[in-house]
Amino acid sequence: MDGSKRDWIIAGAIGGFIAWGLYQMTRGKEEVKAKSSAEESLQVKSLEQKPKMRFQISRLSASLKTKVLGRHAEFKDTVTSTMTEAADLVSAKGASEANGSVVLAEEQTQGIGRRDRAWRSAPAGNIYMSFVWSEPELDLQQKIHRALQLNFACGIAVARAARNRGVQANVKWPNDVWVGTRKMAGSLVNFDGKDTAIAGIGVNVNQSRESLDAVVGRGNTGTSMVCELGDDTAEITREDVVADILNEIEALMARSLEDTVDQYRNLDMLQGNVVRVCHKSREEASAEDYDATVVGYNVTDGRLRVVPTGKDAGDPTNEVLLSGEEISIKV
């Protein structure tokens, strides 16, 4: 790979939860953005609690029940993004050899969220990880559906890992995990249109309320596992959380897309609720935006089924299938 430039073709399907396009990043731009993020982090450094224990790959390995996922894992103190680190593994090793590899980091200086949003990744005892998923034996349409299934599997796995620890988390279509009205985690699946998907997952685990306010801004809607458990001075063992997530993902991916979507529905926080369908973003209104009631999911492709407010929800012809639109819960 050219040292001055990284080209990662990100293709995907059916809707905004899988990225499609060209991810092209120069090293120079990375350095400028990393410097900006570093300067910003200095302003809140005194409020960022460092984890008491460094992440131990050996402990993660001991808790894994997977055949492939996580059997090669790397932990780094600081990276620009675990997504780009995982893409580098694919470039260096090839998709087949890199399959199942996981990259974790204590801190990201340029975390990648949906629609190219920055994912704030403070060194606060959280989980920032990406992994490689490759099934070259499948045809293109099968790979697209598998990447879509992987997106749902990530949300289910994070929510269940939280629930295993007493945190009543739910999934929020298409990429988030929330607890009540607060976001705890997010994921992103990038598919290269050929053989490889890279999934990125960020979970707020041990971050205190004070640290969240310092990093994201006071009054934010973020939360963490320890905040939800009522003791943000505690420390949850991240290796066990990561193992739970990876074990669950591999088990879900051994099942059908329809079954995975059905399990996603069981953890859904939107079903029956009125939401705002935003065509640009939650922060930017559009004349096309409208309110609608969520009535379910299209089991074959995971699109959200809604009925615009004012129309008969009992009439299937009034249903709208959402893919790339962004959904924000109406308060």
Give a brief outline of the structure.
This protein is α+β, with helices and mostly antiparallel strands and 331 residues long. The chain is 31% helix and 27% strand. Strands 2, 4, 5, 8, 9, 10, 11 and 12 form an 8-stranded mixed sheet that branches. It has a 5-stranded antiparallel sheet with strand order 16-15-14-13-17, with no helix packed on it. Strands 1-3 form a two-stranded antiparallel sheet.
Describe the structure.
With 331 residues, the protein is α+β, with helices and mostly antiparallel strands. It is 31% helix and 27% strand. It has helices spanning 27-44, 57-63, 82-93, 95-98, 140-163, 209-216, 225-228, 238-253, 257-266, and strands at 5-10, 18-19, 21-26, 73-79, 102-108, 111-112, 118-119, 127-134, 170-172, 176-179, 182-191, 196-203, 274-278, 290-297, 304-308, 320-322, 326-329. A hairpin with a 5-residue loop joins β6 and β7. The longest helix has 24 residues, at 140-163.
Figure out the total of helices: 9
The main β sheet shows up as: 8 strands, mixed
Helix-strand string = EEEHHEHHEEEEHEEEEHHHHEEEEE
Low-confidence stretches: 1-47
Helix content: 25-40%
Mean pLDDT: 83
% residues in beta strands:
25-35%
E-strand count: 17
> What shape does the CA trace take?
globular
Distance between the termini: 47 Å
The assigned structural class equals alpha+beta
Radius of gyration: 19 Å
